[in-house]
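Hey, quick one: can you model this chain's 3D structure?
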Amino acid sequence: MQYRNLGKWGLKVSEISLGSWMTELNGLGAAETARQCIRAAYDAGVNFFDCADAYSGGAAEKFLGSALRDYKRSSYIVSSKVFFPAGRGVNDWGLSRKHIIEQLDSSLKNMKLDYLDLYFCHRFDPTTPLEETLQTLSDMVAQGKILYYGVSEWSPVQLSKAISVVKELGLRPINVIQPQYNMVDRYIEDETIQICSENGIGIVSFSPLAQGLLTGKYRKGQPLPAGSRATHQADRQINALLTDDNLDKVNALSRIAQELGVPLSVLALSWILRLPQISSVISGASNPEQIEANVAASGFKIPAEAMQEIEKILDYHPFVRKIG
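Sure thing. Here's the predicted structure for all 324 residues.
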């Protein structure tokens, strides 16, 4: 495993990290399998484990905290997030000072930790002033409850405004963002990456395999694989990605991966890590074997010729409007 700094900051995170969004805790043996995944990741050098208060209604936090107690606290980095509803009350969601402090305390209690290494605003809250949200997060850093903080899925304008507020009020700086980023969703390349580079903000991206599209298991003209996410996922995100155009790209990318002697998933993960602004790629896994496959992307360099071919296949065109 190789490690990178979190933006310009001193914290070192593993290039491949483990997320908890898809962690399955229900059913015979599910919890034990999830525990084996965490153990396999840690043994492979993964030191960053991502979670959120909204995952499984807090059960994911409790499980992750329990699994990580087997290890020395200084040896791992753990994160959580705040925004989504935690109850039915009018103040049980969002980024108000009240909700942030209450949910941070709840996350720490769930994980049985004294502090979180990273804490994210899970989404943007248009009903709360940025001054209130950012002052609260800065205060939590000052109190030692969190060490670094950031945002997830904020627009470039929202992120830029937040940076301005931080500077204006002399608050603790934003250290990290957590956006979606993969071969078929490259929106952060248009503006966000430049904003992060200019401000020393680290990027820990999620959904690197585009809900499983970039594993190569979905094929054009073939039935959906039994038990795959496309057959049962409630929000149907993967199904919207199974277009003929995307599946043609996957087929072409699979040929490149085969020529390089790696799984398509390794190609997709290492492609993200080609950018120095990426601090870590948050991967998911339903079994320890997938952990082994994912961590193989750390340190794997895609040859320049193959990279050129990949860009031709992806055919990405950033949004540009000529003025004048």
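One thing worth noting: The first helix runs from residue 30 to 43.
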